[in-house]
Design goal:
Helix content: 25-40%
Strand order of the largest sheet: 1-4-5-3-2-8-9-7-6
Oligomer: single chain
Shape: globular
Number of strands: 9
Distance between the termini: 29 Å
Number of helices: 7
Order of helices and strands: EHEEHEEHHHEEHEEH
Length: 241
């Protein structure tokens, strides 16, 4: 499948928007930008959008595209957006067998881990900024997150038919599948999600409902309590991924 790439360079104020501290950091040879992987299920009705940024260090990402196709996915098109010193690459992904967006949590997690693994392989310096760098990178992160302190869970109103579940916690392999399982165990439906990996932290949003309606305050509290309990007690074996 031909991948169509469009490039859009945007900068509101150019270099003048950078303060002296950030400019100094970006000019420092030892500076490693924050790697960010975002999986967006909301913005496009037909495709899953995956966005990757790592400062301005990303290349053509041909190997990442090949790895995604190896998962049985079709990368229909891509865009590259440059904002200041940050390059953001977006992939529009669909399943080869159905031509539809990816819904399966296990596959979404495989997509996330595939992109992170390729980032570690082709940009090994990113390992000191990623949780997976602890096991698979050339240099483990110097900063360690306390999962109790890093974990925040809350539910917001999002109309009469659904609620917005927001989760922030320490990243680890299998995290997305673990979260979906916990939500399902409370008999709550996940309608769509936005899954973001920002360095050592996972910042996820889920549109959820119960029997076609928004969550009640009591059910929201049950869900929050369950997620806080299990996320603060990680049992995932990192060697299994």
């Amino acid at each position: 499948m031909f991948v169509a790439w469009s490039i859009w360079c945007a900068s509101s104020d150019g270099a003048s928007t950078l303060d002296s501290t950030s400019l100094k950091s970006e000019l420092d040879d030892d500076y490693v930008p924050m790697p960010i992987v975002l999986i967006d299920q909301d913005s496009d009705s037909d495709a899953t959008i995956v966005q990757l940024s790592f400062g301005d260090r990303l290349g053509a990402l041909i190997d990442t595209i090949k790895s995604l196709k190896g998962l049985g996915l079709d990368v229909s098109k891509g865009t590259v957006v440059t904002e200041g010193s940050v390059k953001q690459t977006k992939f529009f992904i669909m399943r080869l067998d159905t031509g539809r967006k990816v819904e399966d949590p296990d596959m979404l997690e495989r997509i996330r881990l595939t992109i992170i693994n390729n980032l570690l392989k082709y940009h090994p310096e990113s390992s000191e900024q990623l949780a997976m760098g602890e096991a698979f990178g050339i240099k483990a992160p110097e900063k360690k997150l306390d999962v109790d302190i890093a974990t925040h869970v809350h539910v917001k109103e999002d109309g009469p038919k659904r609620s917005l579940l927001c989760i922030k916690t320490a990243d680890r392999p299998g995290l997305l599948v673990e979260i979906i399982k916990i939500i399902a165990d409370v008999n709550i439906d996940v309608e769509s999600a936005e899954i973001e990996t920002e360095g050592l932290v996972a910042k996820d949003k889920f549109h959820v409902s119960y029997r076609g309606a928004a969550l009640s305050s009591s059910l929201s509290q049950v869900l929050v309590n369950c997620l806080r309990y299990y996320l603060r007690r990680p049992e995932t074996d990192i060697d299994s991924y």
